[in-house]
Specification:
The chain has helices at residues 9-22, 24-31, 36-48, 54-74, 78-90, 92-111, 119-126, 131-139, 143-150, 155-167, 173-190, 200-208, 213-226, 228-238, 249-256, 261-267, 273-280, 285-298, 303-322; strands spanning 52-53, 195-196. With 336 residues, the protein is mainly alpha-helical. Strands 1-2 form a two-stranded antiparallel sheet. The model is unreliable at 1-9, 75-79, 191-198 and 332-336 (pLDDT under 50).
Length: 336
């Protein structure tokens, strides 16, 4: 795309679908290369999309793949050209190392869809496979997801899979990719009407979280002008209660003067020790004692009540941020 060129509505929607199909981190990387006008148009389209089916995801990715192939056919390229260029500049040995990494990345991308699937579902997809196949699948998953899946196997089978994981070093990339494709077909056949919650305000908020704060603010500012309701919905999902740990003592005191003890008694239920300490250390001992006492007197509260209280506090925090009194999410260089 040429810099500054206006994207048509059709093109903007297609771009929005592609970004959501690529995933949060990759989408953020792509958006960092777009100019402000392009970002604004794509973000607006993205915010209108409520959900994207698996079929739609595959369709837009396939169209993107075909477009790349067309570009490649117009220019001599491919893996052999890349190998020749690398060999001349870095030497044959280093070229092979880099190309192996490229192969690994391509295979990892084949398994990326599984990282968005519940561990129990992944387990049901691979539980009847040979230990070698299970080990290969787990090796290409996000380690956290792989750990959750591995825990679901019986102890004896778990040991066998772990041994295969530890001893399997080289497997043909195409063979591994075939495993991923087979699992994708198996997942799709479970329920062809199943829709992935890929669109809407939450998807946009997730992507904004990976962008620098100044880019995030620019997007929200433009979005607030063109679609204020959408912008407010995104802002509500952009922050989580734990983000308040980023506030310093002065900012916390500014926030706490606007929040009642009753609201805090609900919001701090189930909070981690670090978060509780962060709140209590920013107020007087008497007030902290009153809130702790109120928490004890209330007994059990529902998760919904806790969530609502935290949401109210975040609304107050966002208002203070808009007034310039606090900054919830610091710029990345402020944490160095």
């Amino acid at each position: 795309m040429e810099s500054g060129k206006k994207i048509t509505m059709k093109g903007a929607k297609k771009a929005a679908l592609l970004l959501m199909a690529l995933g949060k981190e990759e989408a953020a990387k792509v958006m960092s290369y777009l100019d402000e006008k392009m970002i604004e148009e794509v973000i607006l389209e993205m915010s209108k999309i409520r959900s994207v089916s698996k079929i739609e995801k595959e369709s837009i990715l396939e169209e993107f793949r075909e477009t790349l192939q067309e570009l490649n056919s117009q220019t001599k390229g491919g893996i052999e050209t890349a190998k020749e260029i690398l060999s001349k500049s870095l030497g044959p040995k280093r070229a092979e190392e880099i190309l192996r990494k490229v192969d690994r990345k391509e295979v990892e991308n084949e398994f990326e869809f599984l990282n968005e699937v519940e561990p129990k579902i992944i387990h049901s997809l691979i539980s009847n496979e040979a230990p070698q196949t299970i080990a290969i699948t787990l090796a290409y998953l996000n380690p956290k997801v792989a750990a959750e899946v591995l825990k679901l196997f019986p102890t004896e089978q778990r040991v066998t899979i772990a041994h295969k994981l530890a001893t399997t070093s080289k497997t043909q990339p195409e063979a591994v990719a075939q495993i991923a494709r087979a699992l994708r077909r198996r997942l799709d056949s479970r329920d062809s009407t199943d829709f992935a919650e890929a669109g809407g305000a939450q998807a946009l908020a997730n992507i904004l979280n990976y962008l620098d704060k100044d880019v995030e603010e620019s997007i929200l500012k433009n979005l607030s002008h063109d679609a204020p309701d959408v912008a407010n919905n995104v802002k509500e999902k952009l922050y989580v209660f734990e983000d308040l740990l980023n506030l310093d003592n002065k900012e916390m005191r500014a926030l706490l003067t606007k929040v009642s003890n009753e609201l805090l008694a609900y919001a701090l239920r189930g909070a981690g020790d670090e978060l509780k300490k962060h709140f209590f250390s920013s107020m007087s001992q008497n007030r902290a004692s009153d809130i702790i006492e109120e928490m004890e007197l209330r007994g059990k509260v529902t998760l919904r009540e806790i969530s609502q209280a935290r949401g109210e506090i975040l609304k107050i925090a966002r208002k203070l941020e808009e007034q310039g009194q606090i900054i919830i999410k610091k710029k990345r260089d402020e944490f160095i």
